[in-house]
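Today's session is about reading a structure prediction critically. Students often jump straight to the picture, but the first step is always the sequence itself: look for stretches that repeat, for charged clusters, for runs of hydrophobic residues. Only then move on to the predicted structure, which in these notes is written as discrete structure tokens rather than atom positions. Here is the chain we will use throughout the hour.
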Amino acid sequence: MHWLSDTFIHHSAIQTVIIICLICALGLSLGKLRIRGFSLGVTYVFFFGILAGSLGLTLDAQMLSYAESFGLILFVYALGLQVGPGFMSTFRKGGTSLNLLAFAVVVLGTLLALVPAWTGSSPLSDMMGVLCGATTNTPALGAAQQTLKQLGQPSAGAALSCAVTYPLGLVGVILALMIMKGWLVRHEAKGADDDKNDETFIASFHVCNPAIYGKLLRDLSGTKGLHIVVSRLWRDGKVLLPNGDTRLQEGDRLLVITEPASVEQLTIFFGRRDDTDWNKAGIDWNALDSQLISQRILITRPEINGRHLGSLHLRNRYGVNVSRVQRAGIRLVATPDLVLRVGDRVTVVGEASSIQHVAKELGNAVQHLDEPNMVTIFLGIVLGLVLGSVPIAVPGMSYPVQLGLAGGPIVMGILIGTYGPRFHMVAYTTTSANLMLRSLGLSTYLACLGLDAGAGFVETVMRPAALAWMGLSVAIAMVPVMIVSAVAVKCYKKSFAATAGMLCGAMANPIALNYVSDTTQGDKAYVAYATVYPLCMFLRVIIAQLIVMLWFT
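Below is the predicted structure for this chain, in token form.
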């Protein structure tokens, strides 16, 4: 049986893979168990890692470091790809306020950590470790340790206090959100963070404004701030497929795809809106006319990726109207300047034969999307790591800071997810594929993190100072979260999902984000997380170095 002991105990590549996979399997299995509807989920992977490490199980240091780093990189990059398409619109609408709230979380936590150092009850190096552990921010710990060493100060206390407080930091944010959730949901404003103003709204209007009689439909495109598509026109009992050269007549009835904010302006423009609810589910669009049909077509041809809808000239070439585009669960108005992406579903109205030609041109082959574009994934990771390694000079600081192996990939994932199609980069992955990448990366990262923190964990916890560290870390993890969550919902009218995602990003806590995603619907939490994560990661790294430099110089 020596071969069995050698496989599980002696350091090797096989041993590393086996141990990490076992820890992940055990942790994820336990994570499926729910007590009164609640489970810590993937957090159990981290706890099993600590248990294995505390029992004396060790792995090759370099392999452990590689697996931990690669798991984190894979998780944050896949997350960036997922939220990229909706990131810019969210940032424009609420990104500033979300980052201000996240900044408040960073400041409050930092002040709490500095109180014992100011009073002289604990060394600054220990408190920096507590701060980094409570906020689960290992890049900030590395920055603080590096600065301490450069200034000739002891740095061992920072590593020990971070190892002890890291588990409490992971769980503390979840506990704070659990405590506050009921109150936050009750006080959540109706329609808080409602992003449906960016989605399509379908309405029908009667032309009874004499000022537009005889006007061309294309004149509407010059109306400031309007994004509309006229899908159908009823005239003299017939259904017509309008185009830019169609002249409006008194009594015309138009089916218009627009945005909710434009409905009132369009009502004034046309004259009257009827009461038909075109946005309810189950409408048979093909029953509106015997000649015109409506069909959703999936864009799968890479040649279409990154092209503007207007550049395809589908109306002129095939006599069809593209009324709306569905992307990542969001319905967009099909304006000519809309940049198309692989994976978009476009709704086309026209004759059956014409729609067949459009489907052939756009692809409409579901099987082509089953294979993720691995070139974009690997190239994006490379670019993200290069970006994270770029030294950024900050005025007044002797040493440059970096986004690191977490900040760089998530920023690059967001950029590729948002702007990749403009450069004909296919960043589309199916929801299940993206979820698998994130889960694989996060589980691997937590298993390695637990193994790394588990060595000597029990001995360190038994130290008298460790109790003070743990108490302070709980305060740092929970107090700022509870205060800022209340402010976000009551004062800034944020939804619980967006607030929780923002807090998880401010605390750099992917496990808490996983908990939030299990208790909320949609991608609001993920988008909010990605909106604040890069800035907060950058701020914590800078602040860690600034505090050490100002304290000892």
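Discussion point for the tutorial: The longest helix spans residues 61-119.
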